[in-house]
């Protein structure tokens, strides 16, 4: 996610379980989502079902499945609220508003409950264990109530944002399923790739922009029903509006769309998406999806990345729009395709996406940014942060290897994950040279595309480049380096 530049560079539920998979493609032994959802504009609700074919690609017997209910963070009284005090006035444009995700029943299972630290986890105990390379089918019905909020999930000032709009299977690690609390700073998400088929029923006056490629669309009685597919995706998002304009481009066979409500420089915004997508393909590796859409919408931060779709805040200036679009496009490589644990190592995707943005503007000076200018501004912002915290607290924690919940707020998080992350990769590049730096990122992308890479994985890739940078990584991550 891209925060504003001033901070950066300043359901009724029914679950049925069977051992039959609806997704038996030999080439893709993956978990599959088949989602059907109906959006009611008058009630600001999304009601739907999720048929999940869970493929056990772990080495363990699994008895319970766990799902992140991100939509419940928007309910009144949530322990982990989605917005900090800093952003409340910008997020709650019509006064504080609340939503939530409701799970009402589970059938044909040994037991179920909604729990977690903040009523954010749906746990289902299966009737029969799922062993490695076996599949179990789970159907969830749910209702999502949408708050009036400029955020990932909600009715924003200009559009309906449906990020994280369904119960999302928790990613699996050596310690079991990863439960994600909705921290206000950063992106509190960890998910594995899956195949998606999404059918959406919504008012005919709206345009639906989704992560998936449209398969069909029908209009009947003032309603539209669209079907979309997306494979090898970490999640799936939708934005709805009755006021979209559209600019179109392409990179080879990849369609690039820019949807906006108020942008006097729409062609420049589209160019930022098209040219950065092309640059990152040539620099890092092939893009995995047939379409890439950038969507201008009400959002309290600068932007938010999803596979094949990026949300961009509606109220940025021309330069901020282009910068954020490039940053979010970089996230197609460093988040959507190469995943990471954003709860544990947020610098891993944010710092690399930010530095990839530097690389793009370095080779595309027409946008008005330079490598030296961006690095210098990030360094100045980081030093200012260090000075302020040192004066106020007597000391400052500059370590990077810490979890989202350990940050005091956006100011600290932005400077460590974005600015210091950018400085880390600039220092690495200067240490090993341009050719080795780009080659290492190509190798990192090739090795972990479709997977969740750890901090050790990316460090290991750089250690293989022929130059000993272990001490450099340790100094940055442990907070010992002086900038």
Q: Would you write up a description of this structure?
A:
- With 483 residues, the chain is α+β, with helices and mostly antiparallel strands.
- The protein contains ten helices and 25 strands.
- The strands form six sheets. Strands 1, 2, 3, 5, 8, 14, 16 and 17 form an eight-stranded mixed β-sheet that branches.
Set out the fold topology.
Layout: H1 5-8, E1 17-18, E2 32-40, E3 45-55, E4 62-68, H2 88-91, E5 100-102, E6 111-115, E7 121-130, E8 135-145, E9 153-155, E10 160-162, E11 168-169, E12 172-173, E13 176-177, E14 194-203, E15 207-210, E16 213-220, E17 223-233, E18 238-241, E19 245-251, E20 254-260, H3 266-283, E21 291-297, E22 303-306, E23 309-313, H4 318-330, E24 339-340, H5 347-363, H6 371-393, H7 410-432, H8 434-448, E25 452-453, H9 455-463, H10 470-478
Parallel strand pairs: 2-14, 20-21, 21-23, 24-25
Antiparallel strand pairs: 1-8, 2-3, 3-8, 4-7, 4-11, 5-8, 6-7, 9-10, 10-18, 12-13, 14-17, 15-18, 16-17, 19-20, 22-23
Helix pairs in contact: 3-4, 4-5, 5-6, 5-7, 6-7, 7-8, 8-9
In short:
This protein is α+β, with helices and mostly antiparallel strands and 483 residues long. It has ten helices and 25 strands.
How many beta-strand runs? 25
In the predicted model, the low-confidence regions spanning at least 5 consecutive residues are 4-27
Secondary structure tally, helices? 10
N-C termini distance: 24 Å
Outline, from the CA principal axes? globular
Averaged pLDDT, please? 93
Content-based structural category? alpha+beta
Give Rg in angstroms: 22 Å
**Helical amount:** 25-40%
> What fraction of residues sit in β-strands?
25-35%
Largest sheet: 8 strands, mixed
